[in-house]
Every structure is written in structure tokens, then in C-alpha cells.
Amino acid sequence: MKKITILSLTFFAFVADASAQVLKASSTPQIWGNVIYCESWDGLGEWGDDYLEESERPYGLYRFAPVAPSYTYPIYTDLRLKANGGGFYRDGKFCFMKFSGVVFTTPIYYEFDTKSRTFTDGKTVDGRLTATDLAYDHTTGHVYGIFRTGETGKYAIGWSDFDLSKDSITRVELAPADTNYLALSVNRSGKLYAISAEASLYTIDKVTGKQSLVGPTGIKPDTYNTSMCFDLSNDTLYFACTLSNGNSALYTVNTTTGHATKVMDFRDGEQIVGMYMESNQPIINSLRETTVNTTAGHLLENLQAKYGTNDYDTIHTLKVVGSIDGKDLKTLRQLTGGAVPDGTDVLEEMYDGNTYPYDIMMLPQQASTAEDNTHNVLSDLDLSDATLSTNSDTIYYSDALYYYQLKDSTMLPNYMFANCPRLRNLQLPKQNITSAGFFALASNDSLQTVDLPMDYKSYGNYLLFNDKSVAVNSVKFGPNTRNIGRLAFQGVNNIESVVIPDNVTSMGIYAFSECDSLKSITFGTGLGCIPGDVCWKDEKLTDITIPEGVDSIWGGAFEFCYALKDVTLPSTMIYVGSGAFAHDKELDSVICLATTPPKLDLILWDDSTFADINPNATLYVPAGTKAAYEASDWHNFFKTIKEIGVTDGINAITRDDTEANIDRNASVFTVDGRCLGTVGNMPADYRGLAIIRSTNETARKVLIK
């Protein structure tokens, strides 16, 4: 224990010395890193001869100046600070993966706030999130890594956002790693570099994962405990590694040739991971504050005047103030990596200059992928203080059949930002916009946030089509909304609930299909019918509310909704289309309040209305209608049909009613079929008429006071 006391005293001395050095030489850059091993910890260095137990080792964040001679100073020490599964620095926090257990079996993700010196609670994650190294990309917000694949010796290039607000942290795989990489870092313009185990420098394409050799460093790393970081003020690349002779050193690496030049030796064989520079943060903040006013000229002219004709397209963050016309929109599409017309793919005779072409079932063109990832990398775009203008006839987008111009200053135009692969965060114009055109924001794999108002009059077909990562938990449309286009929100994975008010009178097919997180959807009376395939393959959907007044459900509306257990159809229902509830394997209870059995469409046997539901499912029908349902096609799917027998009288109960004939576990439904839970746990604020279905299958109408 005497050894620990000495280390503690030394630690405080180092902190004092480090503070003095910073004050005296504030212009000297400082590098931080997580020291996870020193020679002295095994009794081989200056700190003593005794072997240090795991619980006594001063793991932590150390600081040093990248000049010779220099020493590493422990600033924050904690046994948890051991990034042996990859680490990175992001906005004041050191974020890292740590293996626990004797044989590294359990990876845990931590975030350490370097200002408050506090940890988040560790989050156990999938082992495939551990990496030989991780690098935060300030231009996209992604964290790139050389991730484990589960196969011994196999790694993959990919990225994750390491977002603790989500239920689970996942990663996107770009490509297999062509070789073993030890360290990663991103330069000022967003270019991703890596150094391999054979000590060569590579660039990695952040879209395709393609790895390109720059050149050999001329050194030979000996362990995976290496790291590198850029000084964003001058794009100097620093690389720290342990050599085959047991020594460790800091190098600069030429990003044009790959050659490494030694800066200094570390005094105690320090093995450093997760290297970063706090001085980069102000630079990152400044990159996030690019503002251009289009009042005096077009966006392209302003950008070129501000950044030069060679560098104007290297910005990552942009706020536009003023009006945006077709010429400006074309520039914005280019900056975000989107396809723009080149004059060869437009058939002008297909467009008469006065009317928009009819909507077609066509995805946007794929944007060309440039080898140089330093250009057209705009990821954060703020148009909140911009307005749309029709002053230019410039074509901003074209496909094989049509071209598109900005013709309506009140609508987000068709294909506005369709398939712009760099776009990550988008703030839309707030003034005078009343609707959104088709494909306006579609097919953006990287788009995470967009402030799309939910009170537009119309949402065009394919609006957010396949924008899987957009962070929107719930969708509740406003009183002005009338139309929701087909596939408008298809594939938006984060939506959990949808409310469609009575004022919506038109909705297209597949509007909310393949929304992987959607659990509940409420329809309004304005629709009249539920569109086909509207929630097709929403595998977590459990709660559907269909109000009185809706008379039909079209084919495939709720097909492949595997989690759906029960549904109530209103008394106005007259038609249920082919495959409407097909393959809902958990569906075991259907309440149909229609006194005349609705027609079932049986076009295809494999896709018929209730095909492949729970074979023991029960159908509940109004009193006196069982025989009619048994004589209809409904009997093909429900061998058990029961009458719910609602009494004519209305009994009043209170929330605290404990009468013997009130079953506290009975299900409570509104008169339009929406389940409120059970008598014992229905919403505290609900008052009015309801139907209570007891566990003995009897039901009655009540007034809840």
C-alpha cells in the first residue's frame, strides 16, 4: 500500500506541473490520450520495482505536449478509464468501449465528462461494436471504426453514432477491412485516414468503405494499443505507437506520402489509445457556424467569394439567410452530394413548361461517388431563415424522363433533397410553406434530423421514403392537413406512434409501411376507408384505432404485422380487402361491431383477408349476429365466433367501483373500438361511454364518471 501512496502524491505533483506549463506556454498544443499500460506498472520503469495489481493501476486520461522532450501527465485517473475496445472524444466527453471479465467477454460503453469528471452509467453492448480504434467525424457526427465481425481475425469498416438515447446502439457496416488497421482519424475537411498493422497509411471512403494506400510510414508498431489524431488547426497527423523493441514514441505522418517522422519518445513505454486534442473543439464549433446571406447574389457566388473556387464545396455546415431559387437549390444539392442535371439526361419534350409532370413510381438517380471525400460534404444545413423564390428557371434535378424547376414558393419542391447522401441534419424554411412535394426528402440514408412541420396541407408521395434514420418518435398531424401521399413515411424506422385527425381526407397506399418501430396508429373519420398496405410489414404494431364512420379496409393494410394481437372494427365496416390482416400470426381476437358481416375479399388464397393468423383466434360480433357471420366467409378464418351481448341499458360506474360484478381485469373499449386497457388501469382522465368486455366474454355498455 505504500506504493499507492507514492503514486497518489506523484499524481498531484504532475497536475500542478502540467497546469504551470500550460499557463507559461499556452500556445503549445496539448494532446490527450487514455494510457492503458506503462512499463513501470510491471516494475520496469521509474515508478518503482513492485508489480502493480489491476486494481492499483492509474488508468486514465493523460496529457502531453507533442514536442521533445515532453512527459505524459495523468489528469483524470479511474479504473474504469481503460478504452481497450476503442475510444474517441466528442464535445467534451471521452467516449470509450471497455471489456470487462477475465477473458474480455462483456463490452461496456462509457462516456466520461471531462469537465464535471462524471461517468454515464455503463451500457452493455454487442461485441461487434468493439474496435481496434474509433474516430469521431466532426463533419457527419458519425463515429467510424475498425469493428470486430465475430470471426477471429476479421474486421469491418463501419460507423455508429453511439447514441445513448436510443434503446440499442447499432453500427452500419461499409466494407470488410482489407488488412488489420490499428488507428483511425478524420482531418479538418472530413477525410478518413487509417494506419495498418504493417505500418502503412490509408484513406478510407466514408460512403463505400473503399481503402486506398497512401504509402508506408517506415515504422513497425508492435501492439494494437496505438492511436492517432489530427491537429485541425494545421491538419498535422500525430501517431502514437509501441515499437517492437518495447519503446513507445510519438510521430507525425505525412498524409501525402505516408512517411512518419519521430517527434519524441515516451519516457515509460506508455501505450496510448483514443488520442485527441481539446484545442480542436473551437475549430469544430467554427465549422458549424458558416452563414451565407443570398440577398446580394446567388449562393454559389457568395460561397466562392468567401471560400474560393477550389474550397467552397468543402464546408460541412451551412446556414442560408435570404431567398433560395432553382439555381441555389442546385448548388445545395451538389454540396450535399446529390445528383444534379448535366444537360444530357433531360427530355425537354416531355415537359410543356407550364404543368408539372404526372407523379411516377421512380426512385431518384444515384448521386455519383467521388474518390475525393473532401468535396461536396455538406452535412448540416439550416434553411430556417430562408424563403423559396421562383425567380430562376434553373433545372435543379432531372431523371431519365423529366426535369424539375422551382415553380411554387409555398411548397417544398419535388426532389428538393432527394438522395443527397451527405445530408445529416436539415432545418427547412419556415415562412410561407404549406405543403411538401413528392420525393422532396426521400432516400437519404444519413439524414437523422429534419424539422418537418406536421401541419402542412399536403405531404407528397414518397416524401420521406426510406429515410431510415430520421429521428422522429411520433407523428401527429395538425388541423390543416388534408392529404398524406403514398409511401410518404415508408421505412422511417424511429416512428413509434401516428395520429391521423378527422380533417385528413386522403391517404396513399404504403404511407406508413415498414416502419420498424411503429407500435400504434389512430385513424380519423375523414378517410372513410383505410388505404391499402398502409401499415404493411410494421412488425411491432400492436394498437390500431379505427373509428366509427370508416366503412372499408383495403388490401394488405395490416399484412405482416406480426405483433398485432387484437383489433376492433367499427359498426360502419362493410368491406375488408384481400390480405388486410394476412400473416398476423399473433392475432387472436377480432371484434367486429357491424351487424351485417362485412364482405371479405378472397382474391388470392395465400393472401386472403385473415390468412395465416392464429388458428385459434376468436371473432366477437354483436348480439344476434353470430349465425350470419357463421354463414359468411368469416367462418373460414374463425372457428370460434362469440356474441358480445351488449345490454341496452347504460350503467354508470366510477373508477373506484368495487362491485362484485365489475371485473377489474376486464378490457375497456371506447364506442368506436379503441382499447383503453383494463378497468384497473385505464387512463385516469377518461370519462364517457365505454364498452367493458369481461374475461368471461360478456360485455356491457357503461358510463365512466
Please provide a written account of the structure.
- With 705 residues, this protein is mainly beta.
- It contains five helices and 51 strands.
- The strands form twelve sheets. Strands 22, 23, 24, 25, 29 and 31 form a six-stranded parallel sheet that branches. Strands 4, 5, 6, 7 and 8 form a five-stranded antiparallel sheet that branches. Strands 28-30-32-34-36 form a five-stranded parallel sheet, with no helix packed on it.
- Strand 45 (618-621), helix 5 (626-630) and strand 46 (640-643) form a beta-alpha-beta unit.
- The longest helix has 23 residues, at 2-24.
- Residues 1-26, 45-49, 345-363 and 646-660 have low confidence and may be disordered.
Topology:
Layout: H1 2-24, E1 31-37, E2 60-64, E3 73-77, E4 87-90, E5 93-100, E6 106-113, E7 118-119, E8 123-124, E9 131-136, E10 143-148, E11 155-160, E12 172-176, E13 181-186, E14 192-196, E15 200-204, E16 211-216, E17 227-231, E18 236-242, E19 248-253, E20 260-265, E21 271-276, H2 280-287, E22 291-293, H3 299-307, E23 317-324, H4 326-335, E24 380-382, E25 386-388, E26 395-398, E27 403-405, E28 411-412, E29 425-427, E30 435-436, E31 449-450, E32 458-459, E33 474-476, E34 483-484, E35 497-499, E36 506-507, E37 520-522, E38 529-530, E39 543-545, E40 552-553, E41 566-569, E42 575-576, E43 589-592, E44 599-600, E45 618-621, H5 626-630, E46 640-643, E47 651-653, E48 667-669, E49 675-678, E50 688-693, E51 699-704
Parallel strand pairs: 22-23, 23-24, 23-25, 24-29, 28-30, 29-31, 30-32, 32-34, 33-35, 34-36, 35-37, 37-39, 38-40, 40-42, 41-43, 42-44, 43-45, 45-46, 47-51
Antiparallel strand pairs: 1-2, 1-21, 2-3, 4-5, 5-6, 6-7, 6-8, 9-10, 10-11, 11-12, 13-14, 14-15, 15-16, 17-18, 18-19, 19-20, 26-27, 48-49, 48-50, 50-51
